[in-house]
UniProtKB/TrEMBL annotation:
Gene3D superfamilies the UniProt entry points to: Isochorismatase-like
Keywords: Hydrolase
Protein name, as recorded: Hydrolase
InterPro entries per record: Hydrolase_YcaC-like, Isochorismatase-like_dom, Isochorismatase-like_sf
GO molecular function: hydrolase activity
High-level lineage: Bacteria, Pseudomonadati, Pseudomonadota, Alphaproteobacteria, Hyphomicrobiales
Residues of the Isochorismatase-like domain: 20-170
This protein's record includes keyword Hydrolase: yes
Amino acid sequence: MISSKPVRVGLDAMLTPDNCALVLIDHQPFQVSGVKNIDAALMINNVVMLAKAAKAFNVPTLLTTVLKDRGGNLIKPLQDVFPEQTPIDRTTINTWEDESCVRWVEGTGRRKIVIAALWTEICLAFPVIHALGEGYEVYFVTDASGGTSVEAHEMGIQRMIQAGAIPLTAGVFMAELQRDWAREETAGKVAEIMLEHGGASATNLAWELQLLAGRPGSGA
């Protein structure tokens, strides 16, 4: 076990496109069917938004499944974000016990690892706790993950926080990578992702764009 003292405050505590990697674990039909703490369609929307945000900012992203011949292939909306990538298929319940997955993370050279998984209390909590013990700073995405009950999800979250992991949501991940609307090379991509997956915020943004489009010189 490697002792680490991750930075909790200040600018260095923030995620950037250059300091983190994303790992998405077991978003498969069998696991989706067992999610009970959040509407499955909403969870799928959130994990796809998370993946699209990572792609927009060129954050290294790993897709992984467990026993796909039984649990099913990765859900199509998520696979479609990275059509060129074949998910690593594991037998281990704990992703951090799969050598291929750990080698992939090591190969990124990133020490901040962001993880979302099904289910929260098992396939998310296990690798989060394990990676913390290896000295990584670990963030987990609560609304792109799901547990087999409200209690299971919440207990998994508490366990990870007690171990030192940092919770966030898919929208926060994207906003944290952008952080400044003057970064025009990604601002348009963020707006597009928001329009597709942002719920009520997407409706408001669409309305604002409609109003701006009616004003000459607005650039909308």
